[in-house]
Amino acid sequence: MTTDFKKQVQEKLANYIAQKGSQNKAAHSLTGVSSALLSQMTNDNWDQISETMWRNVASQIGHSSKEWVCVETTDFKMINYFLDDAKQNANVFAMTGDAGSGKSKTFELYIQDSKNSYLLSCAEYWNRKEFLVQLLTAMGVDYSGFTVAEMMNEIVKKLKSQQTPLIILDEADKLPDTVLYFFITLYNRLEDHCGIILCATDHLSKRISKGIKLNRKGYKEINSRIGRKFIELKGVNFTDVTQICIANGVENSKDIKEIFNDSEGDLRRVKRKIHAVKNRV
């Protein structure tokens, strides 16, 4: 492992600590990492730090040694507009976009430079406790020994004490109903204090519509709190793909057209195809 890599991680870590507010909060938000270790990394005391730990920290704070230039696509700009609005004005929005539209990467980049902003990548297996654990971890709060009620109270207390906090629930359609209801609780207790963004594929909007028709518990309340509207992302267009290709070393117009036609609007496919074109024999 090179010194340049460690320096890059060190620089990224300094920004991460600043975003979290303190070294202790940063350590609490990372798995298997202590405040003492972060102190060693930031102060050039590297002799006792294994390569495995460097990679562990690097992956958790979003650093990659592979060069890839991100471009401000149409959806990137749109998402950032609503993130800023939600954060500055404690607004609540729900947005939908196709898989591979760049939603998650946009969120990751946003929170890196936005203090008191917390991103949760939701999962199907989360129960109510796990959801709160994930949110407290993102906030850098030690939740040891807390009950579910105590965890929720701690979250509300911390967020109300912060300036312009923001919660982003990515892939929110994966949450079971019992956890999705926590969105109502968070809204009710943090209204006018904290911005909230729900984001998913259009499965979420269809799920909410179906739940309302079937008069399922909580669905009308959720729909009301997002303003009875889902913001639909535009998707990846030819201009977006062209800019991504040029930024990442593919400038031939024929290659760009080929990449766009092969992408099916999925930025993951764009990235793979750019790699294939650049390594074409």
UniProtKB/TrEMBL annotation:
Write down the superkingdom of origin: Bacteria
Q: Can you provide one Gene Ontology molecular function annotated for this UniProt record? A: ATP hydrolysis activity
Q: Which residues form the ORC1/DEAH AAA+ ATPase domain?
A: 88-207
Q: One Pfam family of this protein, by short name?
A: AAA_22
InterPro entries, per the entry = AAA_22, ExeA_AAA_ATPase_DNA-bind, P-loop_NTPase
**UniProt cross-references to Gene3D superfamilies, sorted A to Z:** P-loop containing nucleotide triphosphate hydrolases
List the protein's name: ATPase
